[in-house]
Amino acid sequence: MKELWEYSAIDYVYWQGLNLCKVCLAAGYDLRRTLLEIEKYSECLLDYNQAIRQRLITPLHQSVLNLMGKSPNESLLVGEIIDEEMIRTDLKNDDVALSQLELIAMFTAYFFNDYGRAYQAWQRQKKYNIAVLVGPDCWMTLRIFYSGLVLAAICREKKHRSEKRKAQSQLLQLRLWNQQGNVACRHMCLILEAELLTVSTGAKPDLQEILSLYVKAAEAAYEVSMIQHQALAYELAGRFAHSQGDHSLSSKYFSISIDLYYSWGASGKVDQIRNDFLDVLLSDTGGIDRAAEFTVSISV
Q1: Where are the domains of the chain?
Q2: Rounded CA separation 292/300 (Å)
Q3: Could you report the per-residue pLDDT of 150-205, keeping only the tens digit for each?
Q4: Per-residue pLDDT band at 11 (split at 50, 70, 90)
Q5: Which of 153, 253, 163 is nearest to 195 (CA)?
Q6: Distance separating the N- and C-terminal Cα atoms of the chain
Q7: Full 3-state SS string of the chain
Q8: d(CA 145, CA 182)
Q9: Which long-range contacts (CB under 8 A, 24 or more apart) does 276-282 make?
């Protein structure tokens, strides 16, 4: 990378380095490896007096630290790298940087189940024409996926029923990409489909149908080596089983999710699930056997 800088290939190195860091997080690479790549890239930018460009990487950098448990407020991009609210003010005239900031803010808040904050970030980022600002982007499918998840969650948690149609439109787009051969979209379709089924329409949700979708999603995520979405699928399965009063079954899915998050390097998520559901995890008396009814064999 530094050799290319010496040959004045600044724009090439800038965009390729940024995309490499984004791909590392999007593809589920070990977070410790992702952090090293981000730190090397950030250091290179600062060495060559590219402080303005370096600020585009700071939200991603802080998000990784949050996932690793190195932030005082995991759902907010705040810590040793940036303060989300301050940088949002600093970037007020940079639409490209702001669009990236809001995407990472939405992703981070959703991962830590702060659906209200994630929804606010979604509302802010939707005003940017990403196709024009950024062009083809490795995070485009994730932007659609997490937008759908946030909309489904806010519909379920805050009773914003009008947002269900918007979440369904995100699912339709993911299904289209899946049909066109984007294999990384299959598990996203299954997770979002399951989430939309948890949004009550009056009838009691079908526990077996929804849990089966989450497990199929975890299997599909495993096939494309996206461990973070394996973990997410099992976490959501655990949360859904818990919401239906089946604490034994939820304990099993939370345990699998914790193992996967730990393998990914997301100590912050491990701590969050353990703290939020400690009583459930400690009281399991039969979840393992019952979860076998729904769970296929997934290697961690």
Answers
A1: 139-203, 225-300
A2: 16
A3: 999 999 877 777 889 999 999 999 999 999 998 899 999 999 999 999 986 667 88
A4: low
A5: 153
A6: 33
A7: CHHHHHCCCHHHHHHHHHHHHHHHHHCCCCHHHHHHHHHHHHHHHHHCCCHHHHCCCHHHHHHHHHHCCCCCCCCCCECCCCEHHHHHHHCCCCHHHHHHHHHHHHHHHHHCCCHHHHHHHHHHHCCCCHHHHCCCCCCHHHHHHHHHHHHHHHHHHHCCCCHHHHHHHHHHHHHHHHHCCCHHHHHHHHHHHHHHHHCCCCCCCCHHHHHHHHHHHHHHHHHCCCHHHHHHHHHHHHHHHHHCCCHHHHHHHHHHHHHHHHHHCCHHHHHHHHHHCHHHHHCCCCHHHHHCCCCCCCCC
A8: 13
A9: 277/238, 277/242, 277/250, 277/251, 280/242, 280/247, 280/250, 280/251, 280/254, 281/251, 281/254, 281/255
Which range (24-28, 52-56, 257-261) has the least confidence? 52-56
- The Cα 298–Cα 200 span in angstroms is 29
Judge whether residue 96 has pLDDT over 90: no
pTM of the model as a whole: 0.88
Measuring CA to CA, which residue among 236, 220, 257, 269 is closest to residue 156? Answer: 236
d(CA 33, CA 50): 23
Copy the structure tokens of residue 121. 């970030």
Task: Please report, as a single letter, which amino acid is at residue 288.
Answer: I
